[in-house]
Structure formats: structure tokens, C-alpha cells
Amino acid sequence: MSRVLVIGAGGVSSVAVHKMAMNSDIFSHITVASRTKSKCDAIAASVKERFGVTIDTAAIDADDVAATTALIKQVNPVLLVNLALPYQDLTLMDACLAAGVHYLDTANYEPRDEAKFEYSWQWAYQERFKEAGLMALLGSGFDPGVTSVFTTYTKKHLLDSIETLDILDCNGGDTGLPFATNFNPEINLREVTAPSRHWDNGQWIEGPALTNKQVYDFEGVGPKNMYLMYHEELESLAKFYPEIKRIRFWMTFGDSYLKHLDVLGNVGMLSIEPMMFQGREIIPMELLKALLPEPSSLGPLTKGKTNIGTIATGLKDGVQKTVYINNICDHEEAYAETGNQAVSYTTGVPAMIGAALMVTGVWKGEGVFNMEQLDPDPFMDMLNKHGLPWKVQELDAPLAF
Amino acid sequence: MSRVLVIGAGGVSSVAVHKMAMNSDIFSHITVASRTKSKCDAIAASVKERFGVTIDTAAIDADDVAATTALIKQVNPVLLVNLALPYQDLTLMDACLAAGVHYLDTANYEPRDEAKFEYSWQWAYQERFKEAGLMALLGSGFDPGVTSVFTTYTKKHLLDSIETLDILDCNGGDTGLPFATNFNPEINLREVTAPSRHWDNGQWIEGPALTNKQVYDFEGVGPKNMYLMYHEELESLAKFYPEIKRIRFWMTFGDSYLKHLDVLGNVGMLSIEPMMFQGREIIPMELLKALLPEPSSLGPLTKGKTNIGTIATGLKDGVQKTVYINNICDHEEAYAETGNQAVSYTTGVPAMIGAALMVTGVWKGEGVFNMEQLDPDPFMDMLNKHGLPWKVQELDAPLAF
Fold first, then answer.
1. Among A182, A145, A169, which residue's Cα sits nearest to residue A383?
2. What is the fold, at CATH topology level, of the domain defined by A146-338?
3. Which residue of A300, A305, B58, B181 has the fewest C-beta atoms within 10 A of its own C-beta?
4. Which of A186, A291, A292, A294 would best serve as a mutation to test chain B binding (most B beta carbons within 10 A)?
5. How far apart are CA B234 and CA B239, in angstroms?
6. Where would I find the H helices in A158-215?
């Protein structure tokens, strides 16, 4: 009996829960809980309608460790799957320790009042999980997540050593709206406006946000501007692959998206600092979030594909090779299957796969784990089977930039 | 003894009060009152320092007719000069009627909850001012104001009949900031985002905001993009000059300004509709106003010139002629004189001139008057003497667009 408790009821949670329900041989019982129970109920209704599977729902304030611990004990899962906001990673890890269950998430902890994107807070739980004989799996989404699994697979099967690694994240989706973020606007805009950072010969090189631009012709999408950014898997990749000389992350943005970002930054709407307004504090970014379309409302509007992958250059049998592993995901197909577009789909499916590997004991351990530490083969196999097929290509040459 | 009471303490008020103090032969006693008395005191301190003239200050809520009436009776002016927000025109006209003093403003009444830009509310006071034997002078700023006086002057001296009239408003000023509005952001953004409207053969032609763009090479500024807009003097010009076949208003905007406007509109920040946010109502436009720089803070930053004028085509002695009357005003020179940049200066000086003509009895009447109804010559004469010199040029041809 593999009972799981999923926390969060956004697009990623919706995808993961639908995919779990599609694999009821692995997930015998699913409970989904979030602050707003009605959102959980909506997911449950969709799962029931699509697949005839009944799941339980509950209301929970994931900031409240005691309440979450009590819920875990009541639901009695083997694993808590955290698909809430990254602000809640630590309280949920605390609750897992208190209740004695395994933990999985898709994005590293972030304090509400600063944008840091680092694993230190969660790695600090290493000894506590070890002592409790529990496993915490960090970052089992697409990026972070699949991108690290692609790298581990590259190292295991394709190259003897990796010299450079580039992660290319292209969302070629179009909502038809002038401006919308395809996941939580606050997290999205924090990430995009953070300084760029990449790993180069043992150190982090920082630069201003969104200044290093390259054009790449993505299969299924076409040529797109992509920008050097920081992204959290760079930290774990640099830690677990000290041999790699240069690790970079690139994300595509359209000119209109960047124009909106520029203006909103200029007028102060991206600030996460409280300001006084009409006698009380307001955080401009939160008002902006309230003004922008709910990412979950974009599903039926989004057309086009995502194309996310890793390009690694290194030696194989003494010869330099460049290998590209990527997945292409269609927004409309993703929406047809679970009612969520590809950005949620590409994160929710890997969350389900990570959870499946944990509850079946294929991936097991005591302590806090990043994706790079685990055997990529069963994960890669499940990606092909559960909606995120990938392929390996050998490129003629390393990236020219 | 010509006592005046000025309501409002923004940039336009500051200019008008400084210019009144420079003409203490006409304005023997000046009181400036606004909601925030400290802003009045700052104007008084500057006037004292620059010209050695003492003016009185008071706190007043211009929405409160009874309180304003009491203040008028206490100050005992011959004229109330309304340089507050246009939301307060009607309550101030009510107070003038109650206290028995003349009235002047620079912009027509506007309800807080809709952007209409029309004189109907104020023209409805016609009989009441007539019966009281009082004069209300509407729109004695630059545009509206001087642009109507230029037209009246054209008709009186330069052309026998006017066929087409174009008002060209160019602000070539640069603050060096990515985005700022040079007067009250709420009023400015309401005006700019309203549909365009122009008078054509007896009817109003409406179009979407900011779509009819022309390039004009402004003396002192250079070539600028200008856009067809609605502006309130079009209504009074069409009423008092039914002979004119086409009346249009053009204003220059830089690409960056329009980019900001586009984005802010897209995300909903220009809305004057309340929205629920964290349990209370917020008007996005008001938060935007709070985020943007105070227009009064832009004075020391602004460089460049404004160039505002009228181009009229018509017949003189049976021959078609095109005449251009315009004023060029330098932001830094304006700032040096009164501590306010040219956008405030070009509105505040005509307010002072209108007030001077009223308190000296050169312009007099009973009822509500627009600028088109009054002899332009003394006004034009004072523009030259008080910082807004103008010149007449004959153009080779009518505007090509």
C-alpha cells in the first residue's frame, strides 16, 4: 500500500495528482491538501471524471508544522510530495521529520523576503533525515530535476567526462495575452530578474540580469532569443560534478515579455519590499500578482511547445563529443491530458516519477538527496513511458558561444 | 486692493503664486490654501526668499463647500484662483457663489470615477453666476487657455476666417528617469489613454488612443512623434468657432513613455476601477501614482524645452494662408525663476495673467466664460511680458497630414 500526501493545489500539483491516479498500481491512495480546499476538490473532481479514481482532499496551512504533522499522521502516507510554494519547504520537512515520512519537492526553499535560490537551508537537514532513517528528495521537477537526471545519464552512458554543460529551457508557448507568467508570477519574476550566475572553472561568475543573449533554433519551436540566467540546479550540478568546467543555464524570453518586465521594474512593481500606501503596507509584487492572470487560467489558451534539454561536451573514448538530450512537450496535448499546460506538465510528471521511484523503493536512501545522486536509468525510462519522451542527439560541435 | 485666494499647492499653483508676487502692483494680497498646509508654506517661503513678498497660507479641504466658503469670507478676496485638482472645480464654484467672489480655473471639472473631459458640468453654472453678478473664467492655463487665445488672436488679426486648426503640444523635456509624468500622473495618464477625438465638419470623430502618429520638427526641440488626442479646449473651440471645419490636438510622446503606458495598461495598473486586494479596495492607478516620482520632484532634473502652439489655415483677403503662433519655454530657465519646470510654468503663468485681467477689470462679465469669448490682445500682451513670449510665423503650406 503506497499512500501519498500531496501538498499544494496549483498546476504542478494537478498534473502530478492526475499522473499518480493514472498509475494507481503504484499510488494506491492519494490525498491532496492545500490552504484552499476547494482547489483540491477541483483536482479531485477532474481526476474522478478523467480516470474514475477517487482521491481525498484536505485543507492545510503548510506554514503550520503542528497542523501539518497532525494531517500527515491522520493520512498516514509513506511520502509527502511538496508541490506548494517554495516558501514552505522547511516547515514541510519539519513536519515529515515529526511524523516520520519521506519527503519530495520540486524547487528549493526560498525565504519570502529575499530571492536567493540556494540549497543551503535544505542541505542543513541532512543529519536529521539520516538519523530518522528518512529520505528527502530535492528538486524532482524538470528544471531542477530532469535536467540533472539528463546530466547524470550523460555521464553514465554517453561521455566519460563532461567539460561543459549548458541547460537550454525554451517555452515556445503563446497565450495570446499581452503579458502573463506561466507559473506563479512572484516566483517567476523573482527568478528572471535575479542577476545571472554561471559556474566557470571553480567559481561563480555573476552578471546583470538578462544581458547575455544568444539565439538558438529549438526543434519544434524555431529560433528564439535565450538569456543566461541563474537557476537552482546549477548549485547541485557544480557540487556533484566538480569535473565540469563550465555550467550555464539559458531560458528563452520574447521581446514583449522583456518589455513588460523592464517597465514593471522601472516603476517599482517588481519590488518585494513593503511600501506604505494609504495607511498600510503593500508589497508591489503582490499587487502585480493579483493583477496578472492566474497561471492556471492559461491552460486552455496556450499553444506551442516547450523544449528543455542539456547540451554536454566532453570526452568519449578520448574523442571530444557534444551530446544533446531534450524533451519536447506540446502545450495543447498536455492540456488535453490533465487540464494543465506544458509548463505545469513538465514539472508535475517528474514529481510523480520521483515519488513513484521512492514509494516503490527503486530510489532509496537516508538523508537529503539531490537528483544527481541517484541512478538515472529508471527515471529516464519512466519519462519515456509517462508523457515526457526524450531523445539523444550528437551535435557536430560544441555551442559556439 | 486686489486680494486673491489661490487653492492648490502643486507646481502650477507654485508658479502662479510666484508670478503674482512678482506683480504685487496687481495682486496686493495673496493667500494660498490646500489640503496640506505645509506645501503652501513651502511656496510662501520660496516667494519670500526670491521676491521678499509675504503671502498667507491656510489648510483647506476643497471638497468641503462650507469650509471653503468660510475661508473665502475670512480671506475676503475678489477672486478665487482654482489650481487644485479638476475634481474640485464644482465645489469651488459652489463656494464662490456662496461667498460672492469671482472664479478662475485651468482645467475643466472631472468626476473622480470617470475620464470625460467636458465642460457641461461647469457650463451648467451659467445662470447662477449671471444672477450673482459674478464671473467664472474656465481653462486659463496653456492648453486649455493660451491655445484658445492664440486662436482668437488669429481670427482677430491674422485670418478673416479659419478653416482648419491644429494645436501642437510638444514637451521636449527629459528628466533622465525611465518613466515619470510631468504633472499629476493620474490626470496625465487618464488624458493620454482616452480615445482620440477631433472635430470634423460638425461632428466628433473618435479613434483609439495613440494610433494616429505624425512627425513634426519643433523649433528648439527637433523632430518628434506626435499623436492625435482629445483635449478639452477642442470642445470650447468647436462651440465658439463653428466656422472651423477641422480642429485637432496633437501631443508628443517618446517611445519609452508609450512603452511604459502600454505595459501598465496591459497589466491593469492604469485602471481607476477599485479592485479587491488583501481584503480591501485598491485603485491600481492610485498605487501607480504613489510609485511614480512626485512631479514636483522633477523640476531640478528636467532639461529641454516645451513648444506649444496653434497652426491655423484660412483666408486672409481672399488668399489661403497658414499661420503658426507658438511659445517655446525652457525647462531649466523656468525652474531657475520659480523652482518649477516648464510644464507647470506654462500653465501657471496664464493662470496669473487671467487672474490679473479679472482683478483689474480688463476682462469682466457676468456668467461662465471660456477663453474664446474674451479679447485676446491684453492677454497676448501680458504673455510677452511675463515669461511666455510668442511669435507668429506664416507657413508655406497647410499641414500635409
1. A145
2. Dihydrodipicolinate Reductase; domain 2 (3.30.360)
3. A300
4. A291
5. 8
6. 185-193
Please state, in angstroms and rounded to a whole number, the distance separating the CA atoms of residues A370 and B331: 60
pLDDT higher than threshold 80 for residue B401: yes
What integer is the mean pLDDT of A184-201?
86
pLDDT for B190 equals: 79
pLDDT at A296 over 80: no
**Cell 519574476, residue?**
A189
Nearest CA in chain B to A270: B291
In one-letter notation, the amino acid at residue A43 is: I
The ipTM assigned to this model is 0.72
Phi and psi at A298, nearest 5°, equal -85, -20
Of the candidates A267, A286, A292, the beta carbon closest to that of B264 is on A267
Using one digit for the tens of pLDDT, what is the confidence trace for B150-202? 999 999 999 999 999 999 999 999 998 888 876 677 777 778 888 999 999 99
| Model pLDDT, residue A258 | 87
The fraction of chain A above a pLDDT of 90, given in percent, is 83
Q: Which of A261, A262, A269, A289 to mutate to test the interface with B (most CBs of B within 10 A)?
A: A269
Share of chain B above pLDDT 90, in %: 83
Q: Answer for the pair A67, A52: CB distance below 8 angstroms, yes or no.
A: no
Task: For residue range B360-384, list pLDDT tens digits in order.
Answer: 999 999 999 999 999 999 999 999 9
Q: Which value, in Å, is the radius of gyration of the alpha carbons in chain A?
A: 20
Chain-chain contact of A288 with B267 (C-beta, under 8 angstroms): yes
CB contact under 8 A, B260 and A260: no
Q: Which among A298, A74, A280 has a CA at the least distance from the CA of A188?
A: A298
User: Cell 492545500 belongs to which residue?
Assistant: A34
CA distance to partner chain A, nearest, from residue B358 (Å): 39
A259 closest CB neighbour out of B179, B259, B277: B259
Q: Is A266–B178 a contact, with Cβ atoms under 8 angstroms apart? A: yes
pLDDT tens digits along A126-158: 999 999 999 999 999 999 999 999 999 999 999
SS3 A152: helix
Q: Please give the single-letter amino acid code of residue B216.
A: Y
Q: Where are the domains of chain B?
A: 146-338
